[in-house]
């Protein structure tokens, strides 16, 4: 299993939207090649953090990949693909970007070093640390 982080502006599509959907949803609209390539690497069952960007800058939940990369339904351009994800659980304690930056074992996480990338990998070690910080079982 691999681990990921999905960033979204909460006023566009937030954690509550993902939870209330109650079913898998396309992670569509990604128009960055590196983020798209990360989605191409995903397998069904992979897990990811749901991150509120912009004003909040915090990890708020955990999602699961339910469909591997396929054409993004929001465009006719064949270059763009997406995966489907579903909400798994909320973090008991949301983890802010500042919390991540202050943890010495998270200094190399992509979120700190390439904060603009909307879909990014997370190592297993980083996953376990953040889950523990957030009060959930990794």
Shape: globular
CATH class: Alpha Beta
SS elements, strand count? 6
CATH superfamily: ph1033 like domains
Q: Strand order across the biggest sheet?
A: 2-5-4-3-1-6
User: N-to-C SSE series?
Assistant: EHEHEEEHHEH
The Rg value, from CA coordinates, equals: 14 Å
- Structural class category: alpha+beta
Distance between the termini: 12 Å
Largest sheet: 6 strands, mixed
pLDDT averaged over residues? 97
The helix tally amounts to 5
Count of folded domains? 1
Low-confidence stretches: none
Assign the CATH topology.
ph1033 like fold
CATH architecture title = Roll
Strand residues, percent = 25-35%
The helix content, as a percent range, equals: 25-40%
Structural features, described:
There is one protein chain. This protein is 27% helix and 35% strand. The chain contains five helices and six strands. β3 (47-52) and β4 form a beta hairpin. The longest helix is centred in the C-terminal third of the chain and has 11 residues, at 124-134. The chain is globular. The protein starts with a strand and ends with a helix. 33% of the residues are buried. Residues 2-133 form the EVE domain. This is EVE domain-containing protein. InterPro entries: 5hmC_binding, EVE_domain, PUA-like_sf, THYN1-like_EVE.
């Amino acid at each position: 299993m691999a681990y990921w982080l999905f960033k979204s502006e909460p006023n566009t599509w937030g954690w509550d939207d993902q939870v209330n959907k109650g079913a898998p949803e396309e992670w569509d609209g990604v128009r960055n090649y590196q983020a798209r390539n990360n989605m191409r690497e995903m397998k069904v069952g992979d897990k990811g953090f749901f991150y509120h960007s912009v004003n909040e800058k915090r990890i708020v939940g955990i999602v699961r990949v339910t469909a591997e990369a396929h054409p993004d339904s929001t465009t006719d351009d064949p270059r763009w693909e997406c995966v489907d994800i579903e909400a798994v659980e909320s973090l008991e304690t949301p983890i802010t970007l500042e919390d991540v930056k202050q943890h010495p074992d998270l200094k190399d996480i992509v979120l700190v070093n390439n904060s603009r990338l909307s879909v990014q990998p997370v190592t297993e070690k980083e996953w376990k640390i953040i889950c523990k910080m957030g009060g959930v079982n990794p």
